Amino acid sequence: MDAAVADGVDVLSLSLGGPSLPFDEDTIAVGAFGAIEKGVFVSCAAGNSGPVPSTLSNEAPWILTVAASTMDRNIRVTVMLGNGLSFDGESIFQPNSFPPALYPLVYAGANGNPATALCANGSFDGFDVKGNGGIARLEKGAAVLSAGGIGMILANQATDGYSTLADAHVLPASHVGFAAGDQIKAYINSSSNPTSAFLFKGTILGTSPAPAITSFSSRGPSLASPGILKPDITGPGVSVLAAWPGTTFNIISGTSMSTPHLSGIAALIKSARPDWSPAAIKSAIMTTASVVDHSGKPIVNEQLLPADLFAIGAGHVNPVKASNPGLVYDLSADDYIAYLCGLGYASKQVSVIARRTIDCSAVSSIPEKDLNYPSISVTLGGNTTYAMVERRVKNVGNAGSTYWAEVGAPYGTYARVHPPVLRFNYVNQEKRFFVVFKMVGGGGGSQGYLKWVSVNHEVRSPISITYKH
User: Fold this and answer.
1) Which of 121, 128, 134, 193 is the most buried (most CB within 10 A)?
2) pTM of the model as a whole
C-alpha cells in the first residue's frame, strides 16, 4: 500500500481482508491511514461471512467498507419437476444440446450421510446417482459428475434464503433458493418415481427484486468500533462477469467484486473533483445512495425482508448522483486521531496507526458518535436517555444554497435538528449542526435517517440507534 501511494495512485482497491482486529494490529487499516493522509481513496471488501452479525472486515472509518448486492440479471436454469411444478435457479453452464427430458431425481442426503448431503468429494461411493441430479459449489458438481450424475440441483440452506449465484458449473446444474429446495425435497420424498428436467433460458434482464443484499455479504455492527455504522455502502457483487487470468472470462461473486465497482466510482468522482479529500468522496457516495430498489420498494435481504443498516449501510451506490452531492461531511487525518484517542486507544497504539508520535493527553479527543461521519450511530438506554451528535457539512453545490432538515426518527426515539435550516453563501463554506436524540421507548435496535433537502439536492444520512438495558 505504501509503495502504491509512493507511485502516485489516486485510489486503492483492496478485495481482501481478515477478522476484526484492533486498528493498530490491522495492517490494511494502518496502510489505509497512510494512504488517506496523502489524499488516496481506499475502498475495501466488507467480507463474505454473512448473514451472521458482526462479521465485518476492514472496519476503520477512513476506509470505504463495501457490501455486496445483486443486479437485475439472472442466468437462468429452470427446474421442471415430474409433478408439473417449476423453480427458477441459476448457472452459467448453459449447454445447447442438453435435452429437456425428465430424468430420475434423488436427494443426495437420503442415505443419512451428512457428507453425501453436501455432495462432498468421494461421498457418493456406493450411492446410485447415475442418470440423476444431485465443498465449494463447483466441487459439489465435480463430485456428482464423477459419480455418474448428469445434473445437479444445488439448494440453499435456510440462512441463505433466496440468494442464488450463477457459477461456471462443470455439469448441467441449477442453484435454487431454500424455499424451492424444500419443495423439491418434499416432492422427492412423496413420489415413488421422482423426476426432473432442466430448461436453460440464458440471460434474463430486468429481474426483481434488484438490487438486493446477498446472503454472503458480511454484516455489522462493527466489533472494532461499534459507534461507527458499517458497512458504508453496497454495490454490485453477485455473478459479476469479468476478465480472468488463463481463460477468456469468469463469473464470480463476493464483496471482492463489489469493491472495485466502488473504487471505479471513486476514481470518476476524483477525476471530476480532484481537490476533494477521500472523506469528501466517501461522503458523496454515501449521502446519495439509494435505499429503494428498481421498483421503488425498500431494498431487501436474502430472506426478501427489508435489509437493515448493518447489511446495507447508507444504501446502494448511485454513481450519477454521487458526483454532485450538494453537501459533504469532510474529515482530516487529525480528526481520525482525535477519534482514536476518544475510542480508548493508548498513545502508543495511535502512534502505530499514524506512524508518528501521538500523545493522546495533548489531543482534543472526541467520542465515536461525534466523528464527522456521513452516518450517525448512537447508543441509548440504561442511564443514557439523551444524546447529542455534532456534525459539519461543507457546501460543494451552488454558492447561494439553502437546506432544510428532515429527520425520520428511529422507533422509540425523539429526534430534533438544530438549526433546522442551513444557508450557504459561498462554495466550500462549512456549517455546524447538532442532532438531539431522546429515548421515549425503544428496545433492541432501531433505524432512521436525516436528510438535508434543497431545491436541487437531497443529502441523506442513515441513523442507527442501539438500545442497551
Assistant:
1) 134
2) 0.94
Burial 73-97 (b: 16+ CB within 10 A, else e): bbbbbbbbbbeeeebbbbbbbbeee
Instruction: Report the chain's terminal Cα–Cα distance, integer Å.
Output: 42
Q: Summarize pLDDT for 126-156 with one digit per residue, the tens.
A: 433 333 333 688 888 898 898 899 999 999 9
Task: Quote the cell numbers at residue 466.
Answer: 442501539
Contacts of 404 (CB under 8 A, 6+ apart): 420, 421, 452, 453, 454
- Contact criterion met (CB below 8 Å) for 2 and 31: yes
Looking at residue 444, its pLDDT comes to 67
Given a cut of 60, whether residue 334 has pLDDT beyond it is: yes
| Cell digits of residue 234 | 453496497
Do you find a cis peptide bond into 231, omega within 30 degrees of 0? yes
Task: Pull the grid cell for residue 382.
Answer: 440504561
State the chain's maximal CA–CA distance in angstroms. 79
Let me know if 126 is exposed, middle or buried by CB neighbors in 10 A (0-12, 13-18, 19+): exposed
Burial class (CB in 10 A: 0-12, 13-18, 19+), 117: middle
pLDDT interval class at 111 (50, 70, 90): low
Rounded mean pLDDT of the chain?
Answer: 93
- Measure the CA angle with vertex 304, ends 302 and 307; round to 5°: 75
Buried b / exposed e along 384-393 (16+ C-beta atoms within 10 A): eeebebebeb
Alpha helices in 273-369 (DSSP H): 278-287, 309-312, 319-322, 333-342, 347-354
